[in-house]
TrEMBL record:
GO molecular function ontology, one term from the record: 3-oxoacyl-[acyl-carrier-protein] reductase (NADPH) activity
Subunit structure comment from the entry: Homotetramer.
Protein name (Swiss-Prot/TrEMBL): 3-oxoacyl-[acyl-carrier-protein] reductase
BP terms from Gene Ontology: fatty acid elongation
Amino acid sequence: MLEGKVAIVTGGSRGIGRAISLRLAAMGALVYVNYVSRPDAADETRKLIEASGGKAAIIQFDVADGEQVQGAFKKILEDAGSIDILINNAGITRDGLMARMKDSDWDDVLTTNLKGAFLCAKAALKPMMKKKWGRIVNISSVVGFSGNAGQINYASAKAGLSGFTKSMAREVASRNITVNGVAPGYIVTEMTDAMSEDAQAKIKSEIPMASLGTPEDVAGAVAYLVSEDGRYVTGQTLHVNGGMYM
Ligand code: NDP
């Protein structure tokens, strides 16, 4: 379905980003797997894609650094000829109650999770506009909609992505570029694996479907939005959370 398309997945090396990278490659896209600090993980993702017959390359850049983003997107454009799909997935947390939160914890999370999406989308815009085709998906979070004590920086950044998604969608819709969000709830990751059984049971009790989601559940929502089936959907956020927030 995505034969001939070039995709960039920020933070594609691990977790949800890895599942998205694998899914887009399985759909036929050439996937640039971005990472910032762990080339080993990015290379593992590349190998997994290639082992199943897909096409991938890894690329290091910090989404929060405008110059690095510009340089990386320029290189991808030179090497691959186009940038058709951008998944703004890279994200960090610096949790803590507001009264004790350091200003730098606010800045780091807002800069990576929100400004990073802006910098990457801006860099992808020109080639997408030229081609009159593009798909941008911003990975948000349920807490950007519900709020969460101890995550004021993260929830603010994710809520900001919602306004970003709608505004950008309006600006570029006439160029056949869609901009959407996917907001995961609790997803099985290294972090949730490390939780006690009691903590996991408590989380499940808050989810109508009574189970955690998987990175593949999130990748499936992304796959729909970038596919031809999703061509008339823009400015939306698709919630993937087992019903915990409606
Ligand atoms: P992980 O912590 O497993 O992976 C984060 C990825 O982002 C890594 O690939 C990491 O690269 C990359 N990254 C971090 N900072 C930067 C940066 N400055 N520039 C480029 N890449 C960077 O994250 P998850 O898979 O858990 O989460 C992925 C997305 O999903 C995030 O946006 C997160 O907020 C969102 N989300 C996750 C949920 C969950 O339950 N896990 C729930 C809701 C939303 P490297 O390996 O090099 O460090």
